[in-house]
Amino acid sequence: AFVSEYTDEWIEKLSELGVEVVTYNLSRGGLNPLADIQSTIQLIYQIKKIGPDLVLSYSAKPVIYGTLAAKAAKVPDIVGMLEGLGYTFTDQPEGQTFKTKLVRNIQVLLYRIAFKFMDKIIFLNGDDKKDLMDAYSLKVPEVHILGGIGLNFANYQYSQPPIHPVKFLFIGRLLKEKGVFELIEAMRIVKSKYPNAHFTVLGAIDHENLGALKQETLDQLVQENLFEYPGYVVNVPDWITNTSVFVLPSYREGVPRSTQEAMAIGRPVITTDVPGCRDTVVDGVNGFLVPKWNADALAEKMCFFIENPEQINIMGRESYKIACEKFDVHAVNKKLFEILGIDN
Fold it and tell me: Is 88 exposed, middle or buried (0-12, 13-18, 19+ CB in 10 A)?
């Protein structure tokens, strides 16, 4: 396993699984072509040293430079997996900036070069395939849709949701693209109608991201008791178990893991009708799909659950059924092995 972003804890966990871990340098968001060329040369050397039968690269820059390095190292089977298309393909309420469009065009050009050397490409959802492969006429011999990465259900215990009071939960980095500003506006609308409505927000501020919620704004919102904010937590299943409805008004996802976790525990979901998110909800069955950037629609569906608490358990059971069908990690892994052509 080649890793460029890691902690000692994760290196240790991989090693315990019997994985040989190789570290390399690659800046996830950097735009320095010389640094990326150096990373590719480093990857070529490290891949040649191992002599693998197959290289699977995942996420944008590793897919590009990992593929080029694998080809240069004469690897027989080269596979890429994109777990989402990232911010350059994410629509914004005010439209994308010139810089974002420029970066996307450069990214597409690099994909076009790398995909020529790839045997298979894997997406998590069909929208990503359509918005990249179809929109820009990119070709790879085999294209596969995996669905969500999946969960080990042994770590997520189904339970009946508490409904007195109805509690809403958001999990994610506190970023504009996660819909955090629409969420805050929707909370205010709901609170104006139901002052005792309960909201919990889990996740850290990404201080390097220009679209992040500011610390002073967060402090003010917590002080006025708009929502409970425990910050970044590791015991996510416990927080989901103690909540009624999961909310994710994101602008775009691969297939969001947080939503899969909420569904596995049996919680209805309110999310946006955008790529990735729409793959988790059957509207009106296990929750609701709302238009992106629309705080009023989001607030309306939260009010629905406050006014119809009996629907929480009904829709939560449907979430659990869908999660079992689509997001069991053992079934997902089996499908991934089949795509890779590996005997499981």
Answer: middle
Q: Which of 84, 32, 34 is CA-nearest to residue 251?
A: 84
CB 83, CB 254: distance < 8 Å: yes
CA distances from 90 to 84, 157, 170 (A): 10, 33, 20
Q: Are 134 and 222 contained in the same domain?
A: no
**Where residue 175 sits, what CATH number does that domain have?**
3.40.50.2000
Quick check: 256 pLDDT over 70? yes
Residues 135 and 217 in one domain: no
Which residues in the chain belong to E strands, given as ranges?
2-3, 22-23, 54-58, 77-82, 120-123, 142-145, 167-171, 198-202, 228-231, 245-248, 269-272, 287-290
114-161 residue pLDDT tens: 999 999 999 999 999 999 999 999 999 999 999 999 999 999 999 999
Secondary structure letter of residue 151 according to DSSP:
B
| Contact between residue 230 and residue 202 where contact means Cβ atoms under 8 Å apart | yes
Q: Residue 250: exposed, middle, or buried by beta-carbon count in 10 A (0-12, 13-18, 19+)?
A: buried
Q: What tens digit of pLDDT does each residue of 60-107 get? A: 999 999 999 999 999 999 999 999 998 899 999 999 999 999 999 999
